[in-house]
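Record type: ASSEMBLY
Status: queued
Input:
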Amino acid sequence: MMFFLKLIQSIGVGALSISVGLLFMGIGRKITARIHRRYGPPAIQNFIDVFKLFSKNSISHGFAYDLGIIAGTSALLAAVVFLPVGQINLFPANSSLIMILYLMTMAYLGMAMGVSSSGNPNATIGISRALTMMMGYKVPFAAVIFSVYIFARTGSLTNIIAAQSGGLLNWNMIRLPFGFIAAEIALQGMLGEKPFDMAIAPAEIASGPMVEMSGKYLGFGMLQHAVGIFLETGIMVNLFMGGAPNVWIFVIKQFELFFIALLVNAILPRFRVEEGVSFMWKIPLLLGVIQALIVVL
Amino acid sequence: MSEWKELADYFRGRSMWMLHYCTGCGAIELPPTMTSRWDMERFGVVPMATPRQADILLITGYLSIKSLKRVVYTYEQMSAPKWVLGFGSCTINGGIYWDSYSVIKRLDKYIPVDLYIAGCMPRPEAILDSFVKLRELIKKGEAKGYEKYVKNFEWYKANQDKVFRRTTPVLKKPEEVTKSA
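Status: finished
Output:
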């Protein structure tokens, strides 16, 4: 009985993450349009796009292709289940950040397996850029996570949230400012927004990993991006903004982080991949190490 | 089942992803259509990078016989509910290339065109109008060019082969070229 209850709740959290992520993407398109002085699509445009994609015919490129795309989406959905979302915390004993990050990496590897089996060189270039960039932003993010771990003396997200309770001044955002800035830059890379969107460069490599995706596969790709936005901003809210008492406030806090990423995305051009990695290993890593030293000493 | 089809057509009409084949001069009208002044994204139309992702194939202007070959490849790579927009008078009757030996005159003979945009060249307003018209056609279930292509495949292939034969090189052997030089 307990098992089925958890199962239904997990499906609910997955559906929540998909719908919030798609809504964020739609609002993001609207805000970007307003920055360009355009009117922009309706905020629910991404729901329409996903429904359309699932109603189209699609072309498979073999078993590994199907498996990779499904593995990518399901790994991210599995990671979302372990994330504390406001008052919803399905597995408080197991909400370890290391496991969530591991599942996020699995999602990228599943995607890499799928798209590189399609045989298109643009897809292979795109996913290799994505993995190189992941190597870039995971290092400063890991430095930040260690300083948060040492500061809170715990590895569980539930306990990290509990340690920040009691007002704005207890948030890690205020207590660990250098770490927050480093993590914010790493978040820009995780979301794949400009200047770190070299994996999906429509003009140079024909949208990279998505180049051979049609219909339902592209729909799964879009769902994966939606869940990814929810998960990555959710981790940041839990680590630095003290979690949230309920889901609504959690989503509002997530949107603040996404909004900053959008503004940066709207005004900056794109790095080359080696520039992106060397930037990540210089400035955010330096900030992360400074923060770790401050916490340790 | 028909309700499901109606719902799917509703969504398809509101999210049309476009692949623009820009060899003709009409391509110059597309940047203003996409950007701030006439913003086509408000109709759910977004430019896409590859034929696999696209719903609409927009042929901007004239097609030489060699580029027609590439258009046919592109059209056949797109996945099923797909539509073709013929842009400008070149796709209707050849336009100013009406007596050219290397340019096709009517696009409709080679791939099924759902909607033509008349003019040389059409203004961005006309392009936006065509998106709205195509949305209505999709909603009414009248834009079925892709089914026509499957049904009359032999006819289309015969027409295509008739012009593709003209692209084979005249000099067969490279030795002849070097000998004459």
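Annotation: The mean pLDDT of chain B is 86.
Annotation: The first helix of chain B runs from residue 2 to 14.
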